[in-house]
Specification:
The chain has one domain: Rossmann fold (3-Layer(aba) Sandwich), CATH 3.40.50. It contains five helices and three strands, in the order αβαβααβα. A three-stranded parallel β-sheet has the order 1-2-3. Helix 1 packs parallel to helix 2. The radius of gyration is 18 Å and the shape is globular. Belongs to the UDP-glycosyltransferase family. One of its GO terms (molecular function) is quercetin 3-O-glucosyltransferase activity.
Length: about 170
């Protein structure tokens, strides 16, 4: 186990790829990733739970919502860490909740209006929001991060409190 000089340890977990191996495409990579990663995380938690440093809480990247299920199956709580700004997370959250149609019809010149944000023009949105064929696996990953957000007892945000308080308050 790494970092035994700290109360917080960071460890990589096996994603199913051999060193230097490239997946045929991003969809194939995510397919393998979804099969391997929950098992790898479960094994890591077991390894720590069998040591003098048992896992007490799992902080996971928000794009890995399945990690909460793994943690709870091991009898611990977890919380997603939203690494993008609150404004970007709010746009993605509202897209996932159907506040605007993805992909946005480019012939509709109207801006997208979301709570606590300025009106967003089409070029303010992620590319997958205006082009259905643009990175479907990434779109699924980013919009899927909210699949169990209401089940988590803790949400951890990357924000600038004074700058984004109006953005993140309505989400909760």
């Amino acid at each position: 186990m790494q970092g035994q000089h700290s109360s917080i340890d960071l460890e990589p977990i096996f994603d199913g790829s051999k060193e230097g191996e490239l997946a045929a495409n991003i969809d194939k990579y995510f397919e393998r990733y979804k099969l391997i990663m929950p098992h790898s995380l479960s094994n890591l938690i077991d390894r720590y739970n069998g040591s003098e440093y048992p896992v007490k809480f799992l902080v996971y990247d928000s794009v890995l919502p399945w990690a909460l299920d793994v943690a709870r199956n091991k009898g611990i709580e977890g919380g997603p860490f939203f690494t993008q700004s609150c404004a970007v997370t709010a746009v993605l959250y509202h897209a996932a909740q159907g506040a605007f149609q993805v992909p946005v019809d480019e012939s509709d010149q109207a801006a997208v209006s979301l709570p606590s944000l300025e009106k967003l023009e089409l070029n303010d949105l992620p590319s997958f929001a205006t082009d259905a064929s643009s990175y479907p696996a990434i779109r699924e990953l980013l919009l899927g991060q909210f699949s169990n957000i209401l089940e988590a007892r803790w949400l951890i945000w990357n924000n600038f409190n004074e700058l984004e308080v109006e953005v993140w308050t309505p989400i909760l």
